[in-house]
Amino acid sequence: MEHVKNFYDTILKSSHPVLLTVHLAGKAAPLVFYLTGFLFPSFTALFITIVLLLATDFYITKNISGRKLVQLRWWYDSTASNTDTFTFESHKQYSSGPPINPIDSKLFWWSMYLTPAVWLVFAILCILRLKLFYFVLVAVATSMTGWNTYGFRCCDRWDPHHSQTSESFFQLPSIPGLDNLTQLARFQSFFQGSRT
Fold this sequence. Notes:
- 64% of the residues lie in helices and 5% in strands.
- The chain is mostly helical and 196 residues long.
- A two-stranded antiparallel ribbon has the order 1-2.
- Helix 2 (17-35) packs antiparallel against helix 3 and helix 2 (17-35) runs parallel beside helix 4.
- The longest helix has 27 residues, at 43-69.
- The N and C termini lie far apart (58 Å).
- Golgi membrane protein involved in vesicular trafficking.
- It is a multi-pass membrane protein.
């Protein structure tokens, strides 16, 4: 009971205690529903519920809690004609802004890195137990939480003063003398251009 009180006191020290609680609950809810899946009448109901919870968490984290708790925001433009598919907004762009609360930052980053790791453990367990349908569900969860974590990680490392272009997830390193790698990197832009 003492741990719960300490955690509650820590949440109250946040700059946005309600939003931090919603953020942490959004990360925990799909995990709780997955662990209590035996209570659902069918796997289809469990699958739909968890995917909807993951989508809600993805949206809230990417568009609301990331902006308020750590002052970071990212989005991916799959229709971009150049290699800059990520766009970032960061507190580093602005000269003076409100400081980031260390409690908000610590709990945000811990939850961002811990959630995909837990889903990855569940994926390994599904493989070992040969549960294919559950593996598909866990793979969706791992990819959604991992993609969001990767976007925020890139946004946090982005330096707006060093480069005005954003990083690309699919960009290959330029190695002198290996022109075939450049051709391989253009492979993605070919498919992006054919969608229009």
